[in-house]
Amino acid sequence: xxxxxxxxxxxxxxxxxxxxxxxxxxxxxxxxxxxxxxxxxxxxxxxxxxxxxxxxxxxxxxxxxxxxxxxxxxxxxxxxxxxxxxxxxxxxxxxxxxxxxxxxxxxxxxxxxxxxxxxxxxxxxxxxxxxxxxxxxxxxxxxxxxxxxxxxxxxxxxxxxxxxxxxxxxxxxxxxxxxxxxxxxxxxxxxxxxxxxxxxxxxxxxxxxxxxxxxxxxxxxxxxxxxxxxxxxxxxxxxxxxxxxxxxxxxxxxxxxxxxxxxxxxxxxxxxxxxxxxxxxxxxxxxxxxxxxxxxxxxxxxxxxxxxxxxxxxxxxxxxxxxxxxxxxxxxxxxxxxxxxxxxxxxxxxxxxxxxxxxxxxxxxxxxxxxxxxxxxxxxxxxxxxxxxxxxxxxxxxxxxxxxxxxxxxxxxxxxxxxxxxxxxxxxxxxxxxxxxxxxxxxxxxxxxxxxxxxxxxxxxxxxxxxxxxxxxxxxxxxxxxxxxxxxxxxxxxxxxxxxxxxxxxxxxxxxxxxxxxxxxxxxxxxxxxxxxxxxxxxxxxxxxxxxxxxxxxxxxxxxxxxxxxxxxxxxxxxxxxxxxxxxxxxx
Amino acid sequence: xxxxxxxxxxxxxxxxxxxxxxxxxxxxxxxxxxxxxxxxxxxxxxxxxxxxxxxxxxxxxxxxxxxxxxxxxxxxxxxxxxxxxxxxxxxxxxxxxxxxxxxxxxxxxxxxxxxxxxxxxxxxxxxxxxxxxxxxxxxxxxxxxxxxxxxxxxxxxxxxxxxxxxxxxxxxxxxxxxxxxxxxxxxxxxxxxxxxxxxxxxxxxxxxxxxxxxxxxxxxxxxxxxxxxxxxxxxxxxxxxxxxxxxxxxxxxxxxxxxxxxxxxxxxxxxxxxxxxxxxxxxxxxxxxxxxxxxxxxxxxxxxxxxxxxxxxxxxxxxxxxxxxxxxxxxxxxxxxxxxxxxxxxxxxxxxxxxxxxxxxxxxxxxxxxxxxxxxxxxxxxxxxxxxxxxxxxxxxxxxxxxxxxxxxxxxxxxxxxxxxxxxxxxxxxxxxxxxxxxxxxxxxxxxxxxxxxxxxxxxxxxxxxxxxxxxxxxxxxxxxxxxxxxxxxxxxxxxxxxxxxxxxxxxxxxxxxxxxxxxxxxxxxxxxxxxxxxxxxxxxxxxxxxxxxxxxxxxxxxxxxxxxxxxxxxxxxxxxxxxxxxxxxxxxxxxxxxxxxxxxxxxxxxxxx
Lengths: 588, 610
What we know:
The structure holds two protein chains of two kinds.
Chain A: H1 2-17, H2 21-53, H3 59-107, H4 111-116, H5 119-161, H6 163-169, H7 173-210, H8 212-217, H9 221-273, H10 279-293, H11 295-321, H12 329-334, E1 343-350, E2 360-367, E3 372-377, H13 383-390, E4 398-403, E5 406-407, H14 413-419, E6 420-423, E7 432-433, H15 434-439, H16 446-455, H17 459-463, E8 471-472, H18 481-495, E9 499-503, H19 511-525, E10 529-533, H20 537-541, E11 545-550, E12 553-558, H21 560-566, H22 569-579, H23 584-587
Chain B: H1 2-18, H2 23-27, H3 29-61, H4 65-114, H5 119-122, H6 125-167, H7 169-175, H8 181-216, H9 218-223, H10 227-280, H11 285-326, E1 347-349, E2 352-354, E3 366-368, E4 371-373, E5 378-383, H12 389-396, E6 407-409, E7 412-413, H13 419-425, E8 426-429, H14 440-445, H15 454-463, H16 467-471, H17 490-502, E9 508-512, H18 520-533, E10 538-542, E11 554-559, E12 562-567, H19 569-575, H20 577-596, H21 605-608
Parallel strand pairs in B: 5-10, 5-11, 8-9, 9-10
Antiparallel strand pairs in B: 1-4, 1-6, 2-3, 6-7, 11-12
């Protein structure tokens, strides 16, 4: 069962890294070569010993063997070096490939995935899981392969050199295998507990550092400290357990090694005296036994590394199993963009998978091409959901949305989003020049860019500071809040989409900027089909119609005079807008 | 001679003193010493083994059967004894390092609880977390494996070299012939390796910052169809990472095989010159073979030194970062009393001036004088957002330290009251309620010296209007909250927090707009019930809604850090235009709340640190 899981994970990942197989094969070949050189060296030392002991020393023979030995150690160093370089760089390439793939894959996930997973967790996939996975393919695998190869090679060589002595010395070897497997399992369990406890410590820390004011308020320092120490004690206990387990590995290996060496010295020595074997064999075996027992600790340790890397590998494969937003190229090519891009919602209902209530119920409305609609309502009334459905972040579960008289489901995602300009509340600017931020990868003439910046009322701010060449820092921190907002408007004007969806920013701005903002918004609305989640009275006033949402339903709709006449929810809102200190209508 | 000895001893002492967190070395010196003894034992047997091999080989050549068999047995004995040592040094040296890291964790957290809230303006949660995890781990590595490896290497050298010299000086010199290259190689390549390793780490954190930015702004990325471009940028960052990595791989792949070659050259020299000497009868076959074993054993200390240097350096950096927190001054538990006042008033404030100084998120200075509350009075605190209400509350329980002789509780300067006692006597409920991810009962009893009885808990929760709701939960008071259990709504949380404060049986209760998420009617019910159930409790109550103010004995009107008017609701409505304005605004706002459920918030000290 477990084996098949490992295999299926491997099967899924192999195609992704197949292109590096030659490098991997080369690495393995170099491992084999290094190992064989390691196996030859003791024989050479043994031969020298033979020559020396036989007291028939043609020093010439010793000289030959020494040259041979020099050749062996030099080529071994070379092979090791090449092997290390090959595997390490291959590891890097695999890491890079997987990391970029995982990143791209995640960025194509449906929005619902992002609702359910914190960005911290997604980051772990991209950074840590990929790293430990590629370590599995390179570092761990190579050490494992090397160690296994050394053990197998040594056993075979010993048996070939002298099967009687070899058999005798290797008598305890099955016990070695048992030590590796038994303690490997024991340790991986112990380590798992250690990791679990450590993450408990971390989450405790995170929660309590964030709540420090409350802890002070309640004078709860002592009881919190006690809770913390309880976890720390548990962590320490589990750590000690793992140390006691690990501390046993080397002693057991040592005892087994002692038995093998004792047998070799006594029996081998006896046989040499009796003339059954040459002293060179004995000397060579001294070297081999070391080769045999040294990898044990490595193997026990790596067993755990491999197991935890498997966990990461599984997580990474799950990333690739997740469904993503995608359009077929064919669909994009064949899709005919309708001429008149109006919007129509017909009995649309939607519920987020993370909530147990519908976000919107039975929403129907229509916005004619070139007209604008303001959406008004309290937080949580479903305004943003409308926008998200329109951008196909989520598929609506009930009813249909028509864009340009075609149901949204027929629109390829990318085409749709290119035709719908979205201005969210929080502005997104990336590191790069103003030009980069305006064109986002497309090519436009500078004249057009400057013209649109002027229309968006932002040119005045940036022209003094380098114009289109102005470097924007990450997150746009070298611009003021208002300037950032205006620049994002300029971007939409440059891209010139047929339809505009805007979640108006609520942040209070100083009057000068606010005035400019209004002008820019007017510019944006000009001859574009628009849906605006409105927070400012001036915006509402310049829209052709208004809908008022409450708990996911349309409560009122109509033009402003109609709604005011109804003396319902909207009228109350309208009063609030007028009173709430936003002097925008007066300044305009 | 004696003098040089002394100097060397001093050097070693300084070396130990400079070691990161060396105070733990002395705290656990017994365990470290035991580990050291076992290590000596193990390493001694390590030196013995080649000597046994030498004996066996020599006996073999001279055909002494008994000695050969005995040598085999002796080798087995040595290895078996060594296993015992190997077990114990690991337990003592590595195990003790775990004690140290656990100690450090406890101390670190304890200290975090002691430093003033203002220190959290400087250090973010994520940063503190990383110190508590990564840096403490680095210390653990240095004080466990780091020390072990360094000691092991030194002991091995110190023991092996005399044994080797004893067998043959010439052979020893041959073995070490190329060793002088090692420091040169380390200086040449080791530094490069460190450099590029750091560069790789920096590039990696660059990449994760970028990925974080993209994932958290994914909505916009998708709406602008920027996925491909983000991927391209990430690929480029990743390419740089690979480039640094390749350079690192180049250096690393030269470094360790070359070290191996240097040791192996020792073997070669011994083979070549040793063979001649054996034939010439200068050394025995046994010595010749034993030296092969010595060379093998020397390879470990060579690797180990480099390791331990890296670990120590990382631990030094970690120590600096941890000490930065440890040197943040703790809040002083209690100050000597300067003056005392008459114990007639529950709370008295005279000539209190306070501002945040450089941390100014509030530009004005809080300036209060001649305020007092008699026991059992209910006082309302009213003022616009940012007028200083929360700051005043925080000063009263010394979350921020008021100047001496300005705030008195029953006539005693609150600075002269130990913190814990003060916060038992003065309970406070904040607007941004924090409940911990444990059971409701644990949350209610948090910080209490004695847990509340069932009757007390019921009384407190009933008064706060949350009892029935708790009883409807799956495990009633034992229901876990947060990630481990259910999530309460904002209003429920606030009511639990009120119950939590009542359960403490305080003399003075500070309520800082703590019903912001409870609707108006409910708020009034709770207040009525609460005033009736706890008639002797002194209360200072602030709310952004003024609807419950008519129920207060007295109202303080605050503006820009000063109390600008005092009196009952009726009086203030008559005499104070600012109060009237606030009252009108609040009425309007309540309507808005009824319309939309919008909740206005003001920043609490909890939020200020982010």
